[in-house]
Every structure is written in structure tokens, then in C-alpha cells.
Design brief:
Layout (H helix, E strand, L loop, with lengths): L1 H11 L8 H11 L1 E7 L2 E6 L11 E9 L2 E9 L8
Antiparallel strand pairs: 1-2, 3-4
């Protein structure tokens, strides 16, 4: 039963590879943040560019995911890289 529920959860996540880029970006914009399947064993949480969906100190950073029509630019929460010397 546990294996079945894990499979059901994975199946419930939208799969970026089955969506067009514009469709995917509209989904993220409408939900503000969404966990998406990006490959056979990969998933992540993607967010709008402008909003407060990230927990501090993370900010929306550019990422690319595979879609039906190529590679699609999206955003996910990450800590910014500090390139300033101490």
C-alpha cells in the first residue's frame, strides 16, 4: 500500500516534459509555486519570478526545465551566491 501511495503522489505532479513552455509558465504563474516532475527520477519546486514564495535567504533564481517544445526558462528558490570578498 505504501508503494502504491508513493506512485500516486509522483503521478499527481505535473510533468514538464508533457507541457509546452508557455503552458508551464502559465501554470507556475497561476499557482505561484508548484512542484513539477522534470525527468524519470527528478522533481523540484518552481516559483514566480516576483513574489514571496521563497523562504529567506532564498530568492527566485533562473533555471531551465525540459518541455515538449524544448528547454523552458523558469525560476526556483535558491540562496544567492555571494561573490564579494570579505
Amino acid at each position: 500500500a505504501a508503494l502504491l501511495s508513493i506512485t500516486s503522489i509522483a503521478d499527481a505532479r505535473p510533468d514538464t516534459r508533457r507541457m509546452g513552455c508557455e503552458e508551464l509558465r502559465d501554470l507556475i504563474q497561476s499557482r505561484r509555486a508548484v512542484v513539477l516532475t522534470t525527468g524519470p527520477n527528478t522533481y523540484d519546486r518552481y516559483v514566480r519570478q516576483f513574489g514571496n514564495e521563497c523562504d529567506w535567504p532564498e530568492v527566485p533564481m533562473s533555471a531551465y526545465v525540459p518541455t515538449r517544445d524544448g528547454s523552458c526558462p523558469v525560476y526556483r528558490c535558491q540562496e544567492p551566491v555571494n561573490n564579494f570578498p570579505n
